[in-house]
Amino acid sequence: MTTDTTKTAAVTTPAGTGSRTTGLRRLTALGGIATIAATFLSWTYTDEFPGDLTVYGYPGGLQVLTLVAGALVLLYALAALDIRGLRWLAPTGTTKALRFLALGAFGTTWFTVIAIAVELGGVVNLEPGGFVAAVASAIPLVAFLLPDDTRKASRPKEIPSWAEILIIVLAFGIGLFVVTYGIDTEYAELFTGYMITAGFAVGALFKSGIMARLSVLTTKYRSIAVAAAFVAAAAFPFTQNTDQYTLIAVNILIFATVALGLNIVVGLAGLLDLGYVAFLGVGAYTAALVSGTTASAFGVQFPFWASVLTGAAVSLIFGVVIGAPTLRLRGDYLAIVTLGFGEIFRITVGNLDGVSGPRVTNGPNGVPNIPDLVFFGYDFGESHTILGIELGGYANYYLLMLLAMILVVLVFSRAGSSRIGRAWVAIREDETAATAMGINGFRVKLIAFALGATLAGIAGTVQAHVQSTVVPEMYVFAGPVPPNSAFLLAAVILGGMGTISGPLIGATLLYMIPAKLQFLQDYQLLGFGLALILLMRFRPEGLIANRRAQLEYHETGQLDTPEGTLPDSGVGTVKAGA
Amino acid sequence: MNDMTTTTETTTPVLDAGGVTMRFGGLTAVRDVDLKVNAGEIVGLIGPNGAGKTTFFNCLTGLYVPTEGTVRYKGTVLPPKPHLVTQAGIARTFQNIRLFANMTVLENVLVGRHTRTKEGLWSALVRGPGFKKAEAASHARSMELLEFIGLQDKADHLARNLPYGDQRKLEIARALASDPGLLLLDEPTAGMNPQETRVTEELIFAIRDMGIAVLVIEHDMRFIFNLCDRVACLVQGEKLVEGTPSVVQGDERVVAAYLGTPFEADTPEKAEAPAPTEAPEPKAAPEAEAPAGTDGTAKGAEPVAETPGADKAQRTTSTEGEGQ
């Protein structure tokens, strides 16, 4: 309550400023309405530009994104104007959120308009509607003239727990829809627009404090939130008509699972492993060789559970064999040696072809024709109809991979908050002090390394069946297609080290961007380099920061200073009173 | 020489270091040092900077493997690995605070429990009743220790955000979490103000009363002479003298080691004079160096620089004395 009154006071005391603020907010709201209206106009003459933006009264393609961005601007502008029933949108202030949203609407619209002009050869291709949209979307930028109204979130209103649970479910539903929309984007322009809109909108939601409020709810109902997240993830294949995007989703899951495994090694234990993809390769090759394919040197066909166990076991052995000598090194040396071992794996596998080595892996040709999995007569390669919805082959693998990811998430969270997890973090923080506290550094690091290897191996066994071919070139240090060691590490760092959701989001972004923006192919690595540099400059803790990293990198605004008062002040008042 | 010590030879000492020598190439940092710590004792280790005190500590805790000599804990020879030494029952703190800065206060202490708990990766993944019981016990014990040092209200703070004095205390709590029989403290009051030093003193007495023997390195002479049952002085890697605080305090070689040897003939008398006062060395400096019979006024006359050379010498010695 106090915060509210101070805020109103701050805004209204200088009478002129107050009315100016209200005026600007009204203008922003008008800009939002104008942007929405502009999407109902025709923006271009021909339907050569993908998405068909020629129709009046029916927004299509990129116009839908502009519409959404405009609507969000309108909503938040109305919330800023203190319209009843909208205040919950921005517990910690609207201005910053409005600025983000204004940029989102502006960015999406102008990107579209410029893309039309460039691709169709000139501004002449724009209909008046396009110009109207460009101008309308620039109006909300006046939000940058608004005074900053950042405030401390007031206590949320008491609502019954069923409503809170409903909010969680709703939030994950929206999340599923947004992600699905992104995966389903059909052309590069639409995906770019989606990234602009979604990026700024998510930023705005964080700035407005609504995400913090949501995360309070998810912490309160943790198991429900986790269940909702996985139900939302499992629902994805049911939203798809074809296998095209399910395949992308499967690959994202593989990539994310392996990144999460790497996060145990890098994020918790602090071991910089630059050859992690080799363990994925070990798992995949093991599964391929025991899958019963004709190309295998071993004429055996293990059932899937056995091949998963074999893949995990072989990865574990490789992890221990590689870890035992290398984990005696610290820091940079470990990174170099693991990089070396990663390459050794790829080159060795490439040479076990019967010419330069024993015939095991067919060398560079790899192991093709890995058969589809069959569980109790349920063939993963075929389509099945479940709940009246036809699921393609990849949907089966998607669900299987989701199970593997749940396993890794479970391992990560359970190991992380235990005696061994604390020992990992202690080793990462200060190895000398950790050993002086009785932690056997080598042993604990080896456990982390081997655990990471095993999880990657499990992911690899599924990957072999999804891809139906494994070749050495899939397991390089750096390459255009994730997962490779460099991208795995980038996913962990981009998303946020030591968190669960961080690597998942990092992996999703790092997979989707190259998959969707094919035209970027030549500049992709350059782009990632730049993105990582910018990230390290502005958000070194990653997109999703755990509490620890947040405090580590941002000294100000500490979350855990004692409630409002310094420890000494209590003593002071006592003295003053006495 | 060292038979003035008040050791009782009937029980095995908690710590028995015999002939510990540590060489780094041609440099002998610690030479043939013997030291015993008995149960319920607080032993001090003093010496000028660079005397090899911390090196000796590192030899005791397995961070260094001594070139010669053995270290026994309650009669058994200690293994040359730090984590095994901690496992055996010797815990330590560091001269420059080495907390796990980005872990919470409670987590720091929980890490200290590592050697006294067994739960491995498998039980963490399965989360059986044994795991939960062990975690709960670790939590309870850690909170108990935090209450002991008075940080229970800051259990969820990051260690890095604690004020300096609290960080020192937390390091002690973390060391205590491994249920040690001997606690090694490396300059526990460095950088503390007199009040904080007094609190630390109380804390160490309380630790002794818990039945834990303490070996403490310190430069604050008042602190060490108040606290310790015995004091050993290390100079240039060798143990110069060992005995009760009054014995060490009165030993002119200790004073000489801290302040340098005076060249005047009648120094022994002068060196004895400040012994009754509790902190001899900073005050002794001006007096020992005082030129021709101006004993009483020497301190007050310091700013007046008559002979530039003498004044300079005086200043350097006094800063040395205080800079400990």
Automatic annotation (TrEMBL), chain B:
A molecular-function term among this protein's GO annotations: ATP binding
Stretches the record annotates as Disordered: 263-324
The keyword Iron-sulfur belongs to this UniProt entry's keyword annotation: no
Pfam families in the cross-refs: ABC_tran (PF00005), BCA_ABC_TP_C (PF12399)
PROSITE patterns: ABC_TRANSPORTER_2
Xref: CDD domains: ABC_Mj1267_LivG_branched (cd03219)
Keyword tags: ATP-binding, Nucleotide-binding, Transport
Feature: compositional bias, Polar residues: 315-324
Domain ABC transporter stretches: 15-261
Entries under InterPro entries matching the protein: AAA+_ATPase, ABC_AA/LPS_Transport, ABC_transporter-like_ATP-bd, BCA_ABC_TP_C, P-loop_NTPase
Protein name: Branched-chain amino acid transport system ATP-binding protein
Organism: Streptomyces clavifer
